[in-house]
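Structure ticket #2291
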Amino acid sequence: MLARVEAASVPAPALARTRHTGDRIGDGLLHGLTAIAAILSVVVVFAIIWRVADGAWPAVKLFKLGFLWHNEWNAPLNKFGARDFMIGTVVTSFGAILLSAPLSIAIGLFLSELAPPWIRTPVGTLVDMLAAVPSVVVGLWGIYVLAPFDAQHVQPLLGTLFGWIPIFAHGGDKTESTVFTAIVVLTIMTIPITSSICRELFLGVPTELEEGSIGLGATRWEMVKTVVVPSVRGGVVAAVVLGLGRALGEAIAVTQVIGNFIPLKLSVFEPGDTIASRVANQYQGAISNTQIAALIYLALVLLVITFVSNYAAQRVVKRFEFQRTGGA
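Resolution: structure written out below.
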């Protein structure tokens, strides 16, 4: 019978101290700096809203809400209305999103799921570099290249095929500075933002989910449709919203190609104007304080449109997230 041996009690080694006073100070600084940054961003937003509202207040008192549905803009007579500019802004921005959203999603899917490795980096870099092109350069390209091509080839074709629809009427007029040209320019300017975010979202989908779908017999298209896109659809909506914000606020490039004309026509093949374009075009040359206040009133309207669009999009994102997680 083996003798019973009692294990000697061995004192546990003391753990090395890994946190020092400097670490605690660093934690405090980190919390403080991040809190200041968050608070500062909120303060900046409210400061912008207050300053724009304060500058627009004389026009708000003078024109009241009637400013929103009146369409006359006559600086010498001090008659101003925002209706046509609001319609032009909504038409150009949402028209651009209708074109850029599917293209951006397709680019993101191609670069993340379908393109061979040797082509992903150069094409992705070129698409990202498109976002760095200044607005005035895009506008000049729109004047000298896009607008003539659009007037000579695209408008007659669309007018022939869809001329019976009022918004595609007058395609045979071959007008270069049109709402449609502005839509195409905004489409080009929003694609880099939306596509780059979509690409990163698709790359973030766990590989195990994709391989599991393929292993169960799904084709690559079925895998993309049932696994990749549903996993990140909330993020895709957010990416489209960022593109929409870019389109709503663009002024220089739109000013160069849209024609700066009111009243706005029903056809997209006619000249028009937007809120941002009108403010950028007339603020420096305003002839009265009333005109300046009316222009700032336009900016306030654009601010409201932007906030409403972002709020609606956030509700859509949360809806998608709730459906995906089941409220967890």
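Closing remark: The mean pLDDT is 85.
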